[in-house]
Amino acid sequence: MLFIGLDLGTSSVKALLMDESGNIEASCSRGYPCFHRYPGWSEQEPLDWYKGSIAAIKELVHGSDVDPLDVRGIGIGGQMHGLVTLDEDDAVIRPAILWNDGRSEQESEYLNNEIGMDRLSAWCGNIAFPGFTAPKLLWMRKREPDSFNRIRKVMLPKDYLVYRLSGEFSTDVSDASGTLLFDVRDRCWSVDMLELCGLSIGQMPEVHESFEPVGTLSPNVARELGLPNDVIVVAGAGDNAAAAVGCGAVEEGQCNISLGTSGTVFLPSNSFRVDDENTLHSFDDATGGYHLMGCILSAASAYSWWSEAILGRNDYAKQEGEIPELGVNPVLFLPYLMGERSPVNDSEARGAFVGMSLDTTQAQMTQAVMEGVAFALRDCFEHAEAMGIRVDRVTACGGGARNDVWRSILANVLGRSIALLEHEEGPGFGAGILAMVGCGLYPTVIDAALRFNQVSSLVPFDPIIATEYNKRYKKYKELYPALKRVFHSEGSDSHDRAL
Fold first, then answer.
1. Residue 297 in contact with residue 339, Cβ under 8 Å?
2. I need a surface site. Which of 61, 317, 378, 402 has the fewest CB within 10 A?
3. 81-112 pLDDT, tens digit each
4. What is the pTM of this model?
């Protein structure tokens, strides 16, 4: 039996073909553009996701030495929080507004300050962030009322793919948790938040657990793909929840850190918990439980910005070989290149290098970028520890986590060893596991995830280097408070200025 896992990312869709034992038979990806029409905006065309996914699936099943008739299920892990809207004819109304779009700062302030954080937390378990879906809907209602009034279906990015593949209007609990329209504690849509945003239950997708089947491939899609009509499509999960399944971070005491375009600290929890300081997100989990998550908006994207856009280099291995010594670097970097979500929740925050002199080298600045991202992740990690969250094992995934130097920096900044897995394929692998559970191969997501995720080695930390990083982390923590007044000195309504 074969299963397909899709990872609908910000820059590309990645597809895996795997057997029931978790062996990867084939993989491929298809890229698509991201549009930035105004400062702070980030949009994509949902049709590009679908076309890319169809092309990737065709390559998987017809470009490999496998029998397409053996494919049993499809699961999707996808970028969270994006707003996809369809009209009564199922046509996309406007480009999708993505997770890293900051245009809804005013709407977020309205929700947090006028509706109130306490009320939002009681309704949804979270407060408002510009990246979440509800502020985007309020922005659309105010700025694009004609388009807003045409909405008949509200979807998240991966749910659009599920809809196109199966014809089923559905979502899962983990992805819905990031909309600020969802009651995380009770795993259902929040009637209060929907009413506030001018929406009805009928405009929202049916909610499923991540591993639950929502339908099968529609006949036209099955014919186009050359797959059986009875291929099961499961609800899928938000990318971080799917990645945690793919990395085996499915029980309390485990932590998965993602170093992708953004960076996350993902912590499974046996019970529903809310961060009193509203710095971490409280979400439902793909396992049927809950998790806490801290998210920084610029992780691997900060490194690629520095290397490619500023230095004009893409020889990453050579750059890392130029770094002189871990723990010893006078330069600090604040990685708030797109504003920041956790733990500061400030879309106006910006990146900064501090501590440079005439002796500063390019290698020191490269090192500072990687260290700044690691410090930002530690900031989220410490907020979780302050809540009493136990962490016994840390794993890492994402493109940045394949970087030996960056992994070592992260281990020393956290003062914890990082477990490396035999298979690390992130959200796509987790989505494939969800498909296996949905097809009945395993009784629970936890059973399947732990079966497929064996630790192969550890990235250790050096107590001496970790001590030096503790000193530098304290200095890093002083940067944002010191620079906050500068960040906020000019106002932030980028859309109004652009128009």
1. yes
2. 317
3. 999 999 999 999 999 999 989 899 999 999 99
4. 0.91
